[in-house]
Amino acid sequence: xxxxxxxxxxxxxxxxxxxxxxxxxxxxxxxxxxxxxxxxxxxxxxxxxxxxxxxxxxxxxxxxxxxxxxxxxxxxxxxxxxxxxxxxxxxxxxxxxxxxxxxxxxxxxxxxxxxxxxxxxxxxxxxxxxxxxxxxxxxxxxxxxxxxxxxxxxxxxxxxxxxxx
Length: 165
Fold this sequence. Notes:
Layout: H1 3-15, H2 18-30, H3 36-43, H4 45-72, H5 83-95, H6 97-124, H7 131-143, H8 148-163
Helix pairs in contact: 2-4, 4-6, 4-7, 7-8
């Protein structure tokens, strides 16, 4: 393979959407000696990746609406510790149209967050050995930051095994 052929192949790989790359990688790796939990985790990719993209879209939309609502109706001063004095301003705040729009936008994002979390949680503390599974873990961590460290731990372990052996 010439250098230009390698560059072209690498460019094609990077230009391919992640869902396709994972599906291609999955086909080869399930047949290999992956642990059962890892094969089951990778099998989630075709369904999981579109959910992650949709969650990112919903979260960006709700974040934008939060900014609009916060500018229109700032939260009461957090230095006020008289909770009774904050009840009425808080009630008026969540009744404002901007806050209602934000809260309405958050519901589908929160529902999808729960769905994704319920699907991936059983796998996230388990060590993965394949780069595809680690990349999938990292992609999940890009959307749900509580899982990013799990992927980085797996990647660090893999790098030590491969590069420091």
